[in-house]
Write a structure and sequence with these properties.
It contains 4 helices and 20 strands. By secondary structure, the protein is α+β, with helices and mostly antiparallel strands.
């Protein structure tokens, strides 16, 4: 019996010694850290957007004829009123001349009939002719007057068609490719010549889930909501615009609602058809707790962080993430402002492990570094 007791005591002693030896030899893990910060941050809704022209005009011919010349280059910026195309004007010039000649002839005839009517009216007053003859001449003058009015209308129509031979830009914009080449016969309101897109200003269209609609309406009632947009990977080059349009119905098939924001686009950074990341800012939230995205890990128990304590050991904390904000996460609960969390090196850590804080890009451990003081 005594031997068994001695044996058990010896085993416990050896086990305790080994544990202390292993604890003494536990490595100090070099890590990167960051402080839990309290910030004023934006409340945002993020979506994928698509750039659309502010205005699009498809240029058509308004007369039949042969396309004579294009006066701009493909892809060129054009100004409102700038000459774009010329349709062979010669047949229309001839039509104007014919209408002018017809008008001149009928005006002379009208002058003759009016003089006759005036003369016969005088003779009726003197009793030299009967009243019926005077009325007939008055009718001829009246009929000729209507004919002159019709001639004037025909002349204006001919001049208008002549003007249509010189096709001008209706908006300031960027011209696309030629849709019809010089020498081609074109038809009225049928032949497409070019498409003009107005890109200053320009629209960014995006859709959000219908669950966000009440929040958007709430904040948009008081002021114009800001929207930033940028190509994937170019967040630093984001452009700012304003929300100007909320569709009048939710798409019942997708459960999404369409929104539009307008951007000045003076540098032509945004381009029609381009896909962008759109970020709509609803309001600013003060005193939000944020940590870098790299600080939060995922386990079967949920999302967690390693918190560095004053004795340079770490403990795990389950956290609740409210939302992501670029390279940061907004934490609803689980950490306090001023605490230090590990942002790199978590794979080598377990609760209770000691750490040393190294500087980013520094291969040497900073074993004397301490957690940042709590604010």
């Amino acid at each position: 019996m005594k031997r068994q007791i001695v044996f058990i005591f010896l085993a416990v002693f050896i086990a305790t010694g080994c544990a202390k030896h292993q604890e003494a030899r536990a490595p100090i893990v070099p890590v990167l850290t960051a402080a839990v910060e309290k910030k004023t941050i934006p409340i945002e809704i993020r979506a994928i957007g698509n750039v659309e022209p502010y205005l699009t005009v498809t240029v058509l011919s308004q007369v039949d004829g042969a396309l004579q010349q294009a006066h701009f280059k493909e892809g060129e910026d054009v100004k409102k009123g700038q000459l774009l195309f010329t349709i062979d004007p010669r047949p229309f010039i001839e039509s104007v001349r014919q209408a002018e000649a017809a008008l001149l002839q009928d005006k002379r005839q009208l002058e003759f009939y009016e003089a006759q009517a005036k003369r016969y009216t005088f003779l009726v007053e003197k009793g030299a002719v009967d009243k019926n003859t005077a009325e007939q001449n008055q009718t001829l003058a009246s009929t000729q007057s209507e004919k002159v009015k019709n001639d004037k209308a025909q002349l204006e129509a001919a001049k208008l068609k002549l003007q249509y031979c010189y096709i001008r830009a209706e908006i300031d914009g960027r011209a696309g490719t030629y849709l019809t080449n010089a020498g081609t016969s074109v038809k009225t309101n049928d032949t497409k010549l070019v498409v003009l897109n107005q890109i200053m200003p320009i629209y960014v269209t995006f859709s959000v889930p219908e669950k966000d609609l009440p929040t958007i309406k709430k904040y948009s009632e008081h002021e114009k909501l800001k929207v930033s947009a940028y190509p994937p990977g170019y967040a630093k080059d984001a452009r700012e615009g304003q929300l100007t349009f909320i569709d009048n119905a939710v798409n019942t098939q997708t459960g999404m609602i369409k929104l539009k924001a307008v951007f000045a686009n003076k540098d032509k950074y945004l381009w029609p058809g381009q896909f962008l990341n759109a970020v709509m800012t609803l309001a600013m939230e003060p005193d939000a707790l944020v940590v870098p995205v790299s600080a939060v890990q995922v386990s079967q128990q949920g999302q967690y962080v390693f918190v560095v304590k004053d004795d340079m050991t770490v403990e795990t904390r389950i956290v609740k993430v409210a939302r992501e904000l670029g390279e940061e996460l907004v934490i609803e609960k689980g950490v306090n402002a001023g605490e230090t969390v590990v942002t790199d090196g978590q794979l080598k850590l377990k609760p209770g492990f000691k750490v040393s804080v190294k500087k980013p890009g520094d291969g040497q451990d900073n074993t004397t570094a301490r957690p940042q003081e709590k604010k």
